[in-house]
Amino acid sequence: MNQEFRRAKRRKASDTIPVTDAMTGRVVGRIGNLSQTGLLLIASEPLVDDALYQLHFALPHDHGPLEIEVGAHLLWMDNASARSQLWAGFRFIALGAEQSRRLRSWIEAPGSHYE
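Structure tokens predicted for PilZ domain-containing protein (115 residues):
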């Protein structure tokens, strides 16, 4: 029996959704899954453990992309199956009301798949 202990459901990203470090303008990876409180990043750039980041990404949506910019804390990293990639878990620490509404809309959209 598999029990889920996360407080927020996580929507799997079926499309490639690049994530940019808003401070450097560099793409640091892509979203693996996303919740109201954080994300799993499949990182393609080196990251600093326990650091704070300002991340930007655009979620695909029927009415045009939903632009999200969020402050996030890097909680953990682990090697991915590809040699040049890492899995990185982020917790959101700064998310405005409008950003939160957009995020919730995307996560709860009909046809979503969850982890």
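Strands lie at 11-12, 18-21, 27-34, 38-43, 52-59, 66-79, 86-94.
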